[in-house]
Amino acid sequence: MPYNASMSTVYLNGQMLPLSEAQISVLDRGFLFGDGVYEVIPVYNRRPLRLAQHLSRLNDSLNGIHLDLSIDAAGWGEIIQKVIDANQGDEQSVYLQVTRGAAEAREHAFPNKVSPTVFVMSSPIADIPAADDIRGASAVTLEDVRWSLCNLKTVALLGNVLLKQEALTRGYDEAVLVRDDYATECSASNLFMVKEGRLLTPPKSRHLLPGITRDLVVEVAREHGFEVIERDIHEAELSEADELWFTSSTKAIVPIVALNDRAVGSGEPGALWREVLSYYRDYVEKLKRGEAS
Length: 293
Ligand SMILES: Cc1ncc(COP(=O)(O)O)c(C=O)c1O
Hints:
Elements: E1 9-12, E2 15-18, H1 29-33, E3 36-44, E4 47-48, H2 51-64, H3 73-85, E5 92-99, E6 117-124, E7 137-143, H4 158-169, E8 174-179, E9 182-186, E10 190-195, E11 198-201, H5 212-223, E12 228-230, E13 233-234, H6 235-238, E14 243-248, E15 252-259, E16 262-263, H7 271-288
Parallel strand pairs: 7-8, 7-15, 11-12
Antiparallel strand pairs: 1-2, 1-6, 3-4, 3-5, 5-6, 8-9, 9-13, 10-11, 10-14, 14-15, 15-16
Helix pairs in contact: 5-7
The structure holds pyridoxal-5'-phosphate (PLP).
Pyridoxal-5'-phosphate (PLP) binds next to helix 5 and strand 14.
């Protein structure tokens, strides 16, 4: 049966129900102010990848916006497993969102005694493709016009949305964001650069999201003997890169083969990308067998 999103089962404030019946107030602060945080967790063979790391980042995001929530890691684990079990597909993308809830009036200041809104849904995703099935992406550099708390995974994504749309409208697949002459990340992913056999990625800061895929890529690359350097990447270095990649939970590792209409390296997905993708896929195979988390 083809997948029908409205027939999927979601979790909303303690209840499991069909997506089409899930409703929240128009006074919800997520809707009015973008006052909430979220996570996207990839699931392979019904097992969430790096669940502990996603929950730890969720905790950091909640603390970062001063939102107290009584759900602990075990509680989240149960809710997420329930949502996975209730939905189709061994491979899923679980989306969870917590907002500061619906107050009685629209006031900027935090409301008193309002329960947060907790929502979890899932949709099927494809398994990670093999290197031969991945088409390289094109990208354009754009000024990173977002705010200075990009380390928090908040639902206030208008900056990211505008940048992604500008890239698409101009005929590119992704935007590489540049703030004060240095690359930060991409509109919905982290950035890696290969230069002379070394792997480089910008260090974690308030100007980029600490990607869970980024960390896993760094981990598997180091385990296999690659030198990985976390350092600032000047915009001018991007045009001299041997390879550029972007990483995210739903896209895994994607090679950027053209930047600003110029070939990156040979203009084909690079050899290091191919190798590191195979290590990443091996890790996901271990997860599927229950031998990794
Ligand atoms: C702005 C931004 N940076 C990086 C990422 C990658 O993070 P992760 O690997 O945890 O999916 C995302 C993912 O949505 C993102 O939106």
